[in-house]
């Protein structure tokens, strides 16, 4: 009986997707919610009974807050994607090691 090297055992990689798509309804709701919030804030600042410089300051503060929120959301998303990618690479290395391991191989 021929006892050559064993064929590799195929172990599937993790099924965790790297990119996750949101539904069109969720995307639409997020855009609509953002638009309503920005319009309501702009109307509120415009109708505020205060000097023009106070309203301008509040408008700039709101714009700064919005841009900071977008930046923070992007950074959090990027870190999560990197973590998922590193996790997939680690899982692939573990799968390779397990597929090459022969538990019935004689120890030295």
From TrEMBL:
<dbReference type="InterPro" id="IPR038972">
    <property type="entry name" value="YiaA-like"/>
</dbReference>
<feature type="domain" description="YiaAB two helix">
    <location>
        <begin position="26"/>
        <end position="78"/>
    </location>
</feature>
<keyword id="KW-0472">Membrane</keyword>
<feature type="transmembrane region" description="Helical">
    <location>
        <begin position="24"/>
        <end position="46"/>
    </location>
</feature>
<keyword id="KW-1133">Transmembrane helix</keyword>
<dbReference type="InterPro" id="IPR008024">
    <property type="entry name" value="YiaAB"/>
</dbReference>
<protein>
    <submittedName>
        <fullName>YiaA/YiaB family inner membrane protein</fullName>
    </submittedName>
</protein>
<feature type="transmembrane region" description="Helical">
    <location>
        <begin position="52"/>
        <end position="73"/>
    </location>
</feature>
<dbReference type="Pfam" id="PF05360">
    <property type="entry name" value="YiaAB"/>
</dbReference>
<keyword id="KW-0812">Transmembrane</keyword>
């Amino acid at each position: 009986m021929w006892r050559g090297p064993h064929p590799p055992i195929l172990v599937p990689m993790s099924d965790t997707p790297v990119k996750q798509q949101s539904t069109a309804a969720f995307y639409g709701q997020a855009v609509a919610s953002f638009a309503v919030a920005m319009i309501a804030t702009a109307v509120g600042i415009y109708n505020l009974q205060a000097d023009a410089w106070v309203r301008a300051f509040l408008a700039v503060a709101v714009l700064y807050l919005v841009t900071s929120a977008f930046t923070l959301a992007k950074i959090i998303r990027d870190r999560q994607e990197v973590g998922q990618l590193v996790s997939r690479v680690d899982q692939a290395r573990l799968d390779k090691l397990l597929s090459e391991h022969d538990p019935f191989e004689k120890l030295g």
